[in-house]
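Below is a filled-in request sheet from our internal design queue. Each sheet records the structural input a requester submitted and the sequence that came back. We keep these sheets so that new team members can see what a complete request looks like end to end.

REQUESTER: design group, bay 2
PRIORITY: normal
MODE: inverse folding
CHAIN LENGTH: 257
BACKBONE (tokenized):
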């Protein structure tokens, strides 16, 4: 009996995984097909991008200040506080910036996407669109994916810049001048780090958009089901972001040689 339960769970899991990647594949194909729904894309970019700007700025500012404070404490006994700028920049741009921005956006935007689409499903708006002959993936999923592909890398860049500024604000209190702070940046960073800092958010944006849309379009159970789906989307997106971050880091290490 236990084996039958395990078998059923595994089959359901693989079925969900197959449907997830099927939705992702179909969405990528429809991104390049007409009609492009420019108005919907602009609305989603505003909702998913600009509306998340404040929380990303706040996250970057205090993350950079904390990183600088901890680095200063560790480097001060070795009289190496001039390297704090480089340490803050390389840590935030390569790793913490993309991950923190993605987690903040996943919590705010991922749940919103799921709740919006889930409400449309339980109120039968999606069924009505299908009856009218509307391509649901092209109309609802593709604009959100395109918006996230553009918005999250830009939000991450803002987060990184603010974190570096926040790091200097903290460092200035320890007698580090701007020239000393900035001179440490090229000693720790190479051009590939900048590529990595932009490539990761693009992948994370795909995860947030596809996960939110998939869970939202498969919502069941009325208003209670919408709430449960939003929570599920946030948890699933956050876990996938952290898992993918590890594998992306390994891939970039391999390419670096």
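RETURNED SEQUENCE:
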């Amino acid at each position: 009996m236990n084996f039958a339960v395990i078998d059923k769970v595994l089959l359901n899991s693989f079925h969900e995984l197959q449907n997830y990647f099927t939705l992702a594949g179909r969405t990528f194909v429809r991104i390049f097909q007409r009609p492009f729904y420019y108005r919907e894309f602009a609305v989603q970019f505003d909702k998913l991008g600009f509306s998340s700007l404040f929380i990303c700025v706040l996250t970057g500012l205090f993350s950079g200040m904390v990183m600088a404070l901890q680095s200063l404490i560790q480097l001060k006994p070795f009289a190496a506080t001039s390297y704090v700028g480089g340490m803050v920049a390389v840590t935030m741009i390569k790793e913490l910036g993309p991950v923190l921005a993605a987690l903040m956006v996943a919590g705010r935007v991922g749940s919103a996407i799921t709740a919006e689409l889930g409400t449309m499903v339980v109120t039968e708006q999606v069924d009505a669109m299908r009856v009218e002959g509307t391509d649901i993936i092209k109309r609802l999923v593709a604009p959100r994916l395109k918006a996230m592909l553009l918005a999250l890398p830009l939000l991450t860049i803002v987060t990184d810049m603010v974190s570096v500024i926040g790091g200097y604000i903290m460092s200035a209190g320890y007698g580090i001048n701007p020239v000393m702070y900035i001179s440490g940046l090229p000693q720790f960073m190479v051009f590939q780090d900048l590529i990595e800092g932009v490539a990761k958010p693009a992948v994370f944006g795909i995860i947030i958009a596809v996960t939110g849309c998939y869970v939202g379009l498969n919502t069941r159970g009325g208003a209670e089901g919408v709430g449960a789906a939003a929570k599920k989307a946030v948890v699933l997106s956050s876990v996938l972001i952290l898992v993918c971050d590890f594998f992306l880091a390994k891939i970039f290490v391999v390419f670096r040689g």
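SHEET NOTES:
- The two ends are 50 Å apart (CA to CA).
- The chain is about 85% helix and 0% strand.
FILED BY: M.R.
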